[in-house]
Amino acid sequence: MKLKNSLAFQLLKVTFSFYVLITVFITVVHMYTVWIQAETYLDADLMKLGDSAQRGIVLAFWDLDYMQVDLIVEGLLELPAVVGIKVKDRKIDKLYGKQGNIKKQYQLIHEEEQGVTYDIGDMMLYSSSSIVFNRVKNEYLLTVINAIIKTLALWIIVLLAGKRLITKPLSLLTEANKSVDLENVETFIDVNIGIGQSENELTILERSFNMMVQRLAFDRQELNRINQNLESIVEQRTHELQETNDKLQQEIIVHKETAKDLKTAKEQAVNANQAKSEFLANMSHELRTPLNAILGFSELMSRDRNLSPEQVGNLETIGRSGEHLLSLINDVLELSKIEAGRIVLHQENFDLHRLLLGLEEMFRLRTRQKGLSLDVERGADVPQYIWADQSKLRQILINLLVNAVKFTTQGGIILRVNNDKSKMHNLVFEVEDSGEGIATDELRRVFDPFFQGTSSRQSQQGTGLGISISNKFVRMMGGELTVSSKVGTGTVFHFDVKMEIVSAADAALLPVQRVIGLEEGQSDFRLLVVEDDGNSRNLLVTLLEQIGFQVKEAGNGQEAVEIWEKWQPHLIWMDIRMPVMDGYAATTQIKTSPGGEDTLIIALTAHAFEEDRVKVLENGCNDFVRKPFRENEIFEMMQKHLGVRYLYEDREPHEKVARMKIDEEQMSEAIVSLSAASHMDFSQAVKSIDFDRAMEIVGRIRERDQDLADALAELLSSYRFDTLQKLFENNE
């Protein structure tokens, strides 16, 4: 081992460094002390010289013998302790020699025999630190040499002792460590330290090292034994892992085949879903287009004021039937939206009482035709104006009532509405019928899509969608739909929905007024109707021309572009699905042409999905109306975009009610004058809710009293059998 790497050398460095620090400190303190002593001696010398020279210089100054002053000063400068003298009186201020950093000042005072003293000047003696250094330099040199000799002697002694006491024994231990054979348990260490047999750290280290070697040898043998066991276990595990790996490879192959099958099935499902969506879109378009003509022309015909009450009733029947067909189409589309997760709530303020009255009038004819009673029981605390999804609530009730009417052959149906006092802002609805009931084993499946119970299959009515859609709607509105039934007794559907009560002012429910013309003083609005279906095109053209618009028509997008270029209409009603050129292409061509941006284009489409609306607006249309449309939708859309001002039919709902009160008073007088047979026959027809029989009797009454017959027919058309019954009971 190299000397500089030995432990003795490291110990020497530490010891030497510590000793050098101590020696340097002591030497510096000693030299400082010597320096202070030398300065003290020099100061004493200057004091003696000054005292001895002061009297001679005072006498020389007193006698004004300046030559004597020079002799005294030059004598002082010969002394080794003085480097300069400065004397000063009233006449001279002279420096002899040079100034030094050590100085001593004396005041020159002359004293007379009588004790009188005179201050005649000053004397300053200068000395230098170099004089002090010259006095102590030899002693400094001896001190440093002495310290160096002592340090070197100590360094040699420590080095030899460390090598003898530490380095040599540790070297022996190192050599013994290299010769250790861990495979041989009998190996021992025997080191002759050479400093006696006393107990010390090295002998303890020797014993500990020997014990460690034996322990390592034992652990080595144990490790060999464990390695042999591990090799056996590893071999066994490797064999097992190989078998497991073979199985996993087989499973991976199976999983890949399964994943491939799942991918194929997913693609088939996606294709099937796409096909279903395309089918629903096409079905919606094909059904809504003729339905648009049915509802539109029935609404158009109702504008004729020369229609008899019976004709008005027939048109209303056509309208209700069309609305029912539209609701069936919407049922299928709503289910598709629910499955795709695209249905959302559209909450609004509306009149709940009016909604219930409309449902009562809608189902009064159906129940009467089947000889059933229909009662709507509304709690006294049920609010009139609420904030909720009117469309979905109406659809829920229609679906439940349709189901009740469908499977009830005798008795009646009750629609109950109450305010849930246990929960704030909750309405509770019940639809109870006295029909055939639902078997217990079918109750749990009644909310499944397309499920049809025994009664449905026997009657071959319905699609099995209405109840399923209603259940999903109720859940969306924060409630729960439940059913209880007993075969042969009837069924009760019960559900609750969340709502907010609003005031009549907040509801802002204004009656819809029928447009009959255009206000004077407006521009001549030019409108273009683009529609490939002749009936739908004729309907809209007729409606717009009756109001007073200038209208032209086109059967496809190409014709529309040509007419637009020549005629520049203010607004275009654009069908989307057309031959030759569809509505999208026509809209794009018009909008990208010079001046096309100023032309308003409103899409008319039989597509019912919300994404169709988004697509239409993205392709440049200004707005969107879905078929079948209502005439007020058409007029409101033109009012919104063109600012059209209309003339309305002079008939408000409150005025109609007022006229009904007047008519009732007149009818009371006219009813008394009826023959007993007509009075009795009509009263019985009203009590039995026999619409056809009552209208037949009205025909006989018309021969004698035209006004009374018209009033009775109007009440019959509105299904106000309760009002008629009171009139005839009060005038018997």
- Radius of gyration, CA atoms, in whole angstroms: 62 Å
Total separate domains = 5
Quaternary state of the chains: single chain
Number of strand segments: 19
Main sheet?
A: 5 strands, mixed
Structural class: alpha/beta
- CA-CA gap between termini: 141 Å
Mean pLDDT: 78
What portion of residues belong to β-strands? 15-25%
Query: What is the tally of helical segments?
Result: 21
Strand order of the largest sheet: 6-8-9-11-10
Poorly predicted sequence stretches spanning 5 or more consecutive residues: 456-463, 651-663
Name the shape in a single word: elongated
Estimate the helix proportion, in percent: 55-70%
In short:
The chain is α/β, with parallel strands linked by helices. The protein is 59% helix and 15% strand. The chain folds into five domains: 160 residues, no CATH class; 123 residues; 159 residues, 2-Layer Sandwich (Heat Shock Protein 90); 134 residues, Response regulator (Rossmann fold, 3-Layer(aba) Sandwich), CATH 3.40.50; 78 residues, no CATH class.
Description of the structure:
- The protein folds into five domains: 3-162, no CATH class; 185-302 and 304-308; 344-502, Heat Shock Protein 90, CATH 3.30.565; 515-648, Response regulator (Rossmann fold, 3-Layer(aba) Sandwich); 653-730, no CATH class.
- 59% of the residues lie in helices and 15% in strands.
- It has 21 helices and 19 strands.
- It has helices at 7-62, 66-77, 129-178, 201-301, 309-340, 352-369, 390-406, 440-443, 454-459, 466-476, 504-507, 534-547, 557-567, 583-591, 610-618, 631-642, 653-672, 676-687, 691-702, 706-717, 721-730; strands at 84-88, 93-97, 102-111, 117-127, 348-351, 373-378, 385-388, 412-419, 426-433, 481-486, 490-498, 500-501, 515-518, 526-530, 550-554, 571-575, 600-605, 623-626, 646-648.
- Strand 14, helix 12 (534-547) and strand 15 (550-554) form a beta-alpha-beta unit.
- Helix 5 (309-340) runs parallel beside helix 20 (706-717).
- The longest helix is centred in the middle third of the chain and has 101 residues, at 201-301.
- The chain is elongated.
- The N and C termini lie far apart (141 Å).
- The model is unreliable at 456-463 and 651-663 (pLDDT under 50).
